[in-house]
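Annual report, structural modelling task.

Input specification for the adenosine-5'-diphosphate complex:
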Amino acid sequence: MEQKDERRFISLKVKWALGTALGSLIIFFVVVMALFSAFTQNLFHQERQLLNQGMTNISRQLGTANAPLTKKRISRLVDPNASKSQIISGQDYRRPVVKELSDGHLVINIYNPDGKNILSTGPYIKKPHFTTNRSVHIAQGPDHDVLVGQMPIYGQKNNQLIGYLQVENNLDAYTRSYHQLELVCALALCLVVIASGLLGYFLSLFLLRPLDNIHDTVKEISSDPTKDVRVPTLNRNDELAELTTMFNEMLDRMQRYIDQQTQFVSDVSHELRTPVAIIQGHLEMLQRWGKDDPKVLNDSIKATLIETKRMKNLVQEMLDLSRAEQVEINFRNQHTIVNDVVHQVFNNFKMLYPEFTFRLDDDLKEPITVDIYRDHLEQVLVILCDNAVKYSTDDHKEIHLSLSRGMNTVEIGVQDFGEGISQENVKRVFDRFYRVDKARSRKKGGNGLGLSIAKRLIEGYHGSITLESSVGAGSLFRIILPIIEDPETKK
Ligand code: ADP
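The model returned the following structure:
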């Protein structure tokens, strides 16, 4: 009973699309994460540097006071009129303090040495912590992290502690950029996943089209095996196009095989009809009035026996033919020395038909091995020699056999000087049940299967069989078989 697969059907296209989407998601995610962290780290580093620079600038400028900071001293130092850049101590460039104080994202608080706030550009987020160490650290702000820088201020000349500085960067710009980048990356990721999924789907739709075609064709053929449908071939050259071609070739072969079988059955029944009809005729005749007539009885039994023998031969030949079609599977790697077989058949025929002149031209200088089962080569030679005897004329009873070597092949010739075969029949004599002169061949006991058995056997061993003939002059059959290098014969 047919077992149905319980698993859900998921199209290859969907699997392909999901696979590509997942693959690109992983790759893109890794790349985006690397870029994202590099970019945000860089941004954060810049913010930190800015804060550090600001702290250094402010503390240096305030350090010029050289006395504990007071509101008055501070206001002089942060005078808006002093907005020009000042060159202090040689090449050192300093931004005016006022500029640092006006930078929106920095909150600056300055304290006197007693910790009293004497200047503030905004409320501080982190409580001031008065130490003699300079520090920059991240602290928890109301909405997000903030950067806090703290340091003592020393007088430039006397190196005396004159106050404290606290600079805070609320990191608003950085956080904004961070979130924007996050959004852009998430959107890009979604877009890439969707685009690669779609691309994968449409690509597989295009690439797997031959599979759909094969599927449709198989479905059509299984619903009606006699239908002559083939998979449409595509104008491309890849594995699936190859599969399509191979599939079509397989269908062609199967079709040919089915046709051959049908033809064979019809040929066989046609061939059997005549002997069966003859036997039936004789038996009916005997039943009616032949039993009492010894002559009729004798003739009928004789005729019946001849037809029975013919039927037996026919059945045997049909069996040989069907076996000949499977030599490739059943008789692999059979090594036979051609010289021996040809000589043996030659000697046998010479003995069997003393009235014939047999000649063998053997041009082979050494034993030649071919990949053929010995009995099959003998069977083919017997078929050809039998025909040569059968179709020789009484005035020229001569048969020539020849053996010669080609590049990688060995050639066996069987020639007679009999009635010959006309050109249009030369092509057809290898067909099953084909006889040039049906009545005469039948008289000689032929079923028209000998040459087709020979051809099938030889072709099964990758050889070929050809025929040259002309009416009245005789026929020459040539068998060509590939030679194999046999180490045994070499020895
Ligand atoms: P059959 O058993 O009838 O001989 P084959 O297949 O051997 O069948 O041969 C097919 C036909 O080819 C024969 O009926 C005959 O007419 C013709 N034929 C075969 N061999 C020869 C030959 N050597 N000379 C002339 N005709 C031949």
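Residues 383, 387-388, 391, 416, 418-421, 429, 434-437, 441, 446-452, 475 surround adenosine-5'-diphosphate (CB under 6 Å).
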